[in-house]
Amino acid sequence: MKFHEMKEKDIEKVLNTDFSKGLTEKDAKARIKQHGFNELEEGEKQSALLLFFSQFKDFMVLVLLGAVLISGILGEYIDAVAIIAIVIINGLLGFYQERRAEKSLQALQELSAPQVTVLRSGEWIKIPSKELVAGDVIKFSSGDRIGADVRLIHSNSLEIEESALTGESLPVAKTTESLEEKELGIGDLENMAFMGTMVTRGSGIGVVVATGMKTAMGQIADLLQNAQSMITPLQRKLQQLGKILITVALLLTVLVVVVGVIQGHDVYTMFLAGVSLAVAAIPEGLPAIVTVALSLGVQRMIKKNAIVRKLPAVETLGCASVICSDKTGTMTQNKMTVTNLWSGGSTWKVDGVGYQPKGRFYRGDTDNPIDIKKEKALQQMLMFGMICNHASIKEIEESEFVVDGDPTEGALLVAAMKAGYNQASLAKQFEIVQEFPFDSARKMMSIVMKDSNGRQFVVTKGAPDVLVGRSESILWDGKRQLLSNNLKKEVHSAIDELASQALRTIAIGFKEISATTIILDEKEAEKGLTLIGLQGMIDPPRPEVRQAVKECKEAGIKTVMITGDHVITAKAIAKQLGILSKNNKVLDGNALSNMSVEELEDVVEDVTVFARVSPEHKLKIVKAFQNNGHVVAMTGDGVNDAPAIKTADIGVAMGITGTDVAKEASALVLVDDNFATIKDAIKEGRNIYENIRKFIRYLLASNVGEILVMLFAMLLALPLPLVPIQILWVNLVTDGLPAMALGLDQPEGDVMRRNPRSPKEGIFARGLGWKVVSRGFLIGLVTLIAFVIAHNSNPEHLEYAQTVAFSTLVLAQLIHVFDCRSERSIFARNPFENMYLVWAVISSVLLMFIVIYYPPLQPIFHTVPIIAKDWIMIFALAATPTFLLAGSFLARKRK
Ligand code: ATP
């Protein structure tokens, strides 16, 4: 018998589980041991060895190895071994960088791995979906992805979208009854839910019947290759640039070799020098360093509670010019407390802190607590707020209470508890027969319930302006009265009064229906209601948001609040947070519905608050901003937010309240649901990009210097200023460590005081190209001057002049690296801020001394010891490029 045919009792028996308690941890562990993790097998990964060898696939490295072979055959053993050693060290370094990049990308994926809610030993807990086993009881609700194949045992308006398996994009309604037919297609198995499918509505509980490769999803393996492109726009541009750079470097190298040979140099020497130069000058390691810099930045973001799910987002973050953010929970704390109530013209206040169910009620503005028993309408409103409710309040420690569920519902529970109501005893008194879950588009939730006398009622709670539209009558002075236009006005002024105090408002209504009526849908339930009253709750702003909004403004980034709340509530909070100023406008959902995207484009620049919006409005807002040329970050948490999150340049999902669907659509997940985290991520994104610019600038200028010194020397018919092994050493040491340390640099103080970068900006924008060429030229020139001076002073001793040239080149680069830290000049920043760089430079200098002064290495590196007097000249020349240009910068500034 198959699971869909079985009765619940039989399933429990077959799977050896208990639906009321679930499995025990021990049992679950044993089952994992036996059947393995709930994972789908992935394709083959590149082995470490293969990755290591792939470092030597590079064409020029192969040519170099060939050349070395030749020099070995010609008897130049020292050169051959030394060059091979350097190539291997270089390969190891590349290997290490790539491994590290790969590892951190993997860690990222694990961080955003899905979680499920499972019943273990009678407690609902969250575990990684990977740890599910057959027999586990799991629960899920709208927005969740199902973690394994399950047979449903409880469902509440449950609808699941199964397109991943069936191709059918319309959600299927699910039931729990056993089915009689034996052979059914996946689409017809109404009492089953499958791994990877998505809950679009309602909630359910199911027992896991298959995991991992045994699931329906596991059987169609080819669907799984949905790996996203992890390559960023900058990396793509670098790949293209790489091709140009390789060509240019090769052409120049060929030129060096040809000119050298024409000027009478030995062909073999020139060939080896040329190949070494090509290896050094081609920035083959650039893409890997970029990945490392990106992933290091991503790690820093994780520490600040932002998880990047798609690497390209790191770059896009730096370009963000608009952040559209949800209000509730992101800008506010989502810790709701009912403070004001209204019914039939009377008002009450209630005190108490947080979710602690202790507080007293006061009438109007008086300070004498009232006897709640005398206030029938208030009682009824509080009681209905408790019954039409999905949340529960738990005491985790003494006097420390938390909500399990929606904080808005938690607040209603606490208010009712303050009046003496108890959820468990109400549940005994009233039987809930049907439920229509809350959704942000309808802005209401309803239940159908029976009391102990068999009478049936619909109870609805929701946004007051919506509920008023669905009500025919109202409770006024304990009597039901027709909701006339006059009374409507009164209600609306009560709503506005609560909202103007920045309170989130909920209205409660009900109607009696005949005991036998079965309500078909929410439309039928939510009409002809009797309005009882309003509850207003505070949701204090997060303290750090005001400052974050201000910083965004300074950074040229506009903050837009989007909320389902009432316009007046939204305005009040937006003002507190500095989002709404005199020149800004507020648009509401109605106005938005009546506008086309084009019409919205015309006004959207002035709007900073969108209120009473539905999730589908978000897409329109994103598009309008994008059409105006903005790079948009958009937050969201629900299923209906997914299209907007996907369309936004940076989709942001909430880590705590976000559904799986929203997270999967997003590029960035906020672990703490906090708006300020978006600002931190943007700052980090800008910083990472700047750091990448820094080391591109450093590496390319260094390479230009290396090529030019050789080219100049050949054109002037001079001997070789650097021998091949020296060139390779410079490539490994001077270009290696300091470049990596630049990737770890701190942001320049003003990154958040500049306007956002244009996403169209090229790599060499903002003067970078000129900096590379001018610095590179000067580095080449001073190295040549040093060589010529040394060579003229001692023409017999070429190795002496070469050692001087080598030291000048190394020092010039190591001084220049500090210049690269700033867009302005070397004096703009304290060099000791980045101690990684200081240590990288110190180690490079020490390694240079070792190569020059350690006798066994001298024959290998063709160096000779040089004296203090030489060092003075070397240092003066090496410092010239950087200080000359810094001086000219200061002079220009003074003008
Ligand atoms: P955002 O997170 O975008 O700021 P929001 O939380 O303010 O959105 P929704 O959750 O869509 O917006 O709520 C919109 C309105 O629906 C609220 O102002 C409230 O009146 C009502 N509402 C919210 N939660 C519930 C609920 N659980 N049951 C009934 N009504 C609700």
From TrEMBL:
InterPro entries: ATPase_P-typ_cation-transptr_C, ATPase_P-typ_cation-transptr_N, ATPase_P-typ_cyto_dom_N, ATPase_P-typ_P_site, ATPase_P-typ_TM_dom_sf, ATPase_P-typ_transduc_dom_A_sf, ATPase_P-type_domA, Cation_transp_ATPase_P-type. Keywords: ATP-binding, Cell membrane, Ion transport, Magnesium, Membrane, Nucleotide-binding, Phosphoprotein, Translocase, Transmembrane, Transmembrane helix, Transport. The chain crosses the membrane at residues 48-71, 77-96, 244-262, 268-294, 695-717, 723-744, 772-791, 797-815, 836-856, 871-891. Residues 2-76 form the Cation-transporting P-type ATPase N-terminal domain. PANTHER family: CATION TRANSPORTING ATPASE, SODIUM/POTASSIUM-TRANSPORTING ATPASE SUBUNIT ALPHA. Belongs to the cation transport ATPase (P-type) (TC 3.A.3) family. Type IIA subfamily. This is Ca2+-transporting ATPase. It comes from Anoxybacillus andreesenii.
